[in-house]
Amino acid sequence: MEDRILRHFSESARLKLDAADALAPPIARAVDALVQCLLADGKVLACGNGGSAADAQHFASELVNRFEHDRPGLAAIALTTDTSILTSVANDDRYANVFARQTLALGHEGDVLLAISTSGNSESVLRAVDAAHERRMRTIALTGRDGGRLAEQMGEDDILICVPADSTARIQEVHLLTIHCLCDGIDNLLLGVD
Description:
- Helices cover about 60% and strands about 10% of the residues.
- It is globular and about 50 Å long.
- The protein is α/β, with parallel strands linked by helices.
- The mean pLDDT is about 95.
- The protein has a five-stranded parallel β-sheet, with helices on both faces.
- It is built from seven helices and five strands, in the order αβαβααβαβαβα.
- It has one domain: 3-Layer(aba) Sandwich (Rossmann fold), CATH 3.40.50.
- α2 packs parallel to α7 and α3 (about 85-90) packs across α4 (about 100-105).
């Protein structure tokens, strides 16, 4: 069992190091897009399913509360948390529209959608991206594998951060590191923290 656990640690560390050079440029562009949005009094909407829902909530909480330094709260909403909205849309319409309906209702031009899907093929996330484009919002997509249909949906101003791995667990581990890089970058640009 200990060897199995050590293998997980080794695989996770190796992927992060191997992917760093490829992922640093789109992550840096995403930080710039998020800071531009927030400085213009925009907000960030975040969505995903399962573990990606937890990542969306984690990201929103770091912005609204704090990351590693005290600062005023930043406008972010996880579209995964309001059970009344989620269940009413899923019941009255269909689950695939749970994030799109919220994006259309809450999103405005200049806002950013953080769309998270390890496979890039989650229908509810894909529809949220369509809704964001309808609202003239930029999208930052966190995905893996080959990016799936999400990669094909990216517009000219959108940013794709695609983890080059097949394992959902490894992709999610890099997504968490990416979220922390985004939060750190935002604090660095807004607060000048080093």
